Structure formats: structure tokens, C-alpha cells
Amino acid sequence: NSKKGNFPPSPPKLPIIGNLHQLGKLPHKSLWRLSQRYGPIISLSLCHIETIIISSAETARALLKTNDFQSCNRPQTNVTKKLSYNFLDIGFSPYSDYWREIRKICMLELFSMKRVLSYEAIREQEVGLLIESISQSASCEATVDLTQKSIALTTDVIFRIAFGKLFKVDGFNEIASEVEVLLGSYGASEFFPIPFVGKIIDWFSGRKARLERVFNEMNVLFQEVIDEHLHSARPKPKQDDIIDVLLAINKKQAESCNVVITHESIKAILFNIIFAGLSTSSVAIVWAMAELMKNPKWMNKAQEEIRNQVGNHGKVRERDLEDLSYLKMIVKETLRLHPPVPLLIPRETISHFKIEGYDFHPKTMVQVNVWAIGRDPTYWKHPEDFLPERFVESSIDYKGQHFEFLPFGSGRRMCPGLNMGVKIVELALANLLYHFDWKLPNGMKEENLDMEENSGLSLTLHKKLPLKLVPTLYHP
Ligand code: HEM
Hints:
Elements: H1 27-38, E1 41-46, E2 49-54, H2 57-66, H3 78-83, H4 97-109, H5 113-118, H6 120-139, E3 144-145, H7 146-163, H8 172-184, H9 188-191, H10 195-205, H11 207-230, H12 242-256, H13 263-294, H14 296-310, H15 318-321, H16 325-337, E4 347-348, E5 353-355, E6 358-360, E7 365-368, H17 370-373, H18 418-435, E8 436-439, E9 468-473
Parallel strand pairs: 2-7
Antiparallel strand pairs: 1-2, 3-9, 4-7, 5-6, 8-9
The chain binds protoporphyrin IX containing FE (HEM).
Protoporphyrin IX containing FE (HEM) binds next to α13 and α18.
């Protein structure tokens, strides 16, 4: 290593693999333990990749606010390159004129509050169907797999928003989990000091073939829906879906825009929207319900608020959500204890800067452990407890300005789908609590409900075991 300077503290390394073995099965937890020992800025060598881990609100602010521009690149891997159509997307594309332009267009056209609200009917209909299907189980006191139901809900909502219709794709859940694992892990070609040897290892281990297969399946699906949209016989939709919006930009932009949104860029953006929106929102619904099962007092309080507010309207509509302040606190508390993306998406530094006297050299990978920050006793009383009340009369929110609470990140790379994600989580949760009383199956006690996180080579933090509950229909 030829770089000089004041490096952050680092745990002892092994030859070749460096600190790789210290990541363990749950990297956010292992890194949290290391930060308690070595401080809020630590440096690790993951084979030959230099990585800095940030684990306090102050250092997160210094990175994501003070040095946001200097650190807003994304590390490039074979997986992100392939799945993002050679970096034509928003999430994995390096910082560039193209990325700035495409993110600006998407913020205005796809993620604006107006656009998010335009999909209200889709969310309400899909949540209605979810409630209908759970009601059937409730009528015969059958157990419901809420993990599977939440994934089905968010998939259907995102598909309808993106493609304009439901698309039942055989094996889509497998593609989705393959994408998650590929994105959340590194292959030998990234880590191995000699890239050529790494490529051979990835070839023999089957990783390369998995990537090709997943990409091809995803590509066929995206091409099919784009072709359908281009087909002149397609009836004019009541409201534009994401492909309509992007195709319209593609048509009119040639004269006015610095970058061109091609069909490849549309597929890359679809890749982001589908995979960024899907599991993040569904895991938040699952964790919230699991925490409420563990804390029946909070469950009752939430149900009381919702049932009083909604009365006998028969369902919670999006316009009711504004008045459900306790429900909103539950969502915040869930995102604090179980941030769906616990280490954010890795950043890469563009130029040199210092935080707390430590040098950050160009091309260093940086990860922010928002899971650890959300449990830091410096900012949170009883940090391990699920206490929605902590947000009463608190101005703390998740919009990237309170660095002790960053479930959507902060700065230039912050999640643009925040409004879309929060709307679906709040609406689904409110309706699950309005329509049903819930108990654990087979007389299980709250304290025995398993809250283990999944062992995870995935960017998203899942509950390890599916959440299975027994619903009883509530009659207003
Ligand atoms: C509860 C739901 C969600 C959570 C917790 C969440 C969280 C995040 C986080 C932590 C990041 C990385 C931010 C960073 O690196 O600083 C991110 C990025 C992103 N999210 Fe979300 N997200 C959610 C829903 C969505 C939805 C519904 C969409 C799209 C419809 C979406 C689209 C994106 C995109 C495109 C990026 C990449 C941004 C960039 O690199 O410029 N997210 N999200």
C-alpha cells in the first residue's frame, strides 16, 4: 500500500484476506462490535479493497453532508456493471454528468410527490386484495404467512406502478432473491488481488453463470414490457406508468437534454425501481408487525387510534394516514431498529478529505452502519427497546437531516423512493391493524417470537424466519 497518511484504526488482519473473516454472517453486527472497540471510524482491508466503516451520527454527518460530493461515487463491481446495463441506472452508476442528469429527471418525473400520489388507487386496490385474502384465512382461523403476503403485496404494487399491469412472472421471487444476494456479496474477481485469477474462480464457482442467468431473465421481462408499451394497439392507459413516463422522455428529450434515455437506460432504471422498492418495503412491514406482536400494548394503542379515526368506513384510505400519528411513530421506530438497508449502499471516495483527522484517500470504499447508529445509546435512551413513544414531540425524521436516524441515507445518494416506500408501508400496516386482531400460532407466547435477522449476504435486512400469525376479523 503506497498511500500515506493517518489511517483510521484497524483490527489485526490476516495475510491475503485482510479483515474479511471478521465480517461474519451479519456484517452490520460484527462491524458494530468492532466500532465499539476501535471507534466510530475504522478501516478494514477486505482482501485488497480498502474500506472505511462509519458508525456514529457525527462521523455520518461529516461524510454525508460535509464531504458528500467527495464521497458520492459507487464502487463498481462485475455484478453492478452487468445488472445496471453498464451503469445506466441511478443506484450503482458512478457520479457523472449522466448520473446527475438521470437522477434529476427521475426526481422530477418519477419520484415527485405528485407522481407518488397518482398511484394512490393502485396501492389502495392492492392493499384491499391483501386484506381480502387474509380475511379468507381469518374465517377459518388459519395461519397466515405475513412475510410471503408482504412480498406479494409490494411486488404487485411495484409491478403495476412500473409496468402498468400485474405481471405474474414464474419464478420471479427466485430472481429477486438471486439479485439481492449477488448485489450484497462480492465475487473473487472483485476481491482477489489478481483479477484474472479471481475471474477464473468466479467462473468455476458458478457465480458468473448465475449472474448471466439472472440478467437474461430480467432482461427478457423488461424487453417484453417495453415492447408491449411501444405496440400501437395498446389502449391509452388511465394514468402513465413508469415505462410510459420514461418512453415519453425518450421521445421528446433528443432536442432538450444533455443525456439520452435509451431503452437500455429504461431497463436499468426499472432494475433499480423493482429491486430497490420491493424487499425494502416488505421487510419494513414484517418487522413492524413482529415488533407489535412482541409488544401488544403498542399494538392495542395503534389499533385504537386507527379504529377510532376510521370508524366504520370499512378500510383505511391514504387520506386517513395523515391523522394517524401513532402509526407513523411505529413506522419510524421500526426503521430505527430494523433499517431495511443496514449499511446503506457502499460509496466510493472521489477525492481526498479528512474526518476527525483521519485521511480518506480517493477510491476508498465507505460504508455507513445506520443499524449501529440507530442503536447508539448516545442518542437513544433504551436503544434496544421498541418504544414508538420516543418520537412524541420529537422533530426527528428520516429525511436525511437527522444523522442519528438514517434509514434512507442522506445527501446526493439518498433514497429517491422514500415517499413511495413510506406510503405503502403505512397503508399496509394501517389496514392490517384495522381489519384484524392478531395472535401467534399454536399458543406461542410473545417472548418466544423469534426476531433473528437473516444471515446475510444481502443488502436488505430480512427477518430470518417467516412471520406466521393467526388473524381474527375485527367488526367495527
Ligand atoms: C421502506 C422503503 C425503502 C427504504 C428503507 C429504502 C432505503 C434506501 C437506502 C438506504 C438507499 C441507499 C442510500 C445511500 O446509499 O445513501 C436507497 C437507495 C435507493 N432507493 Fe430506496 N428505499 C426504500 C424504498 C425505495 C423505493 C420504493 C424505491 C423506488 C421506487 C427506491 C429507490 C431507490 C433508488 C433508485 C436508490 C439509489 C439512489 C442513488 O444511488 O442515487 N427505494 N434506498
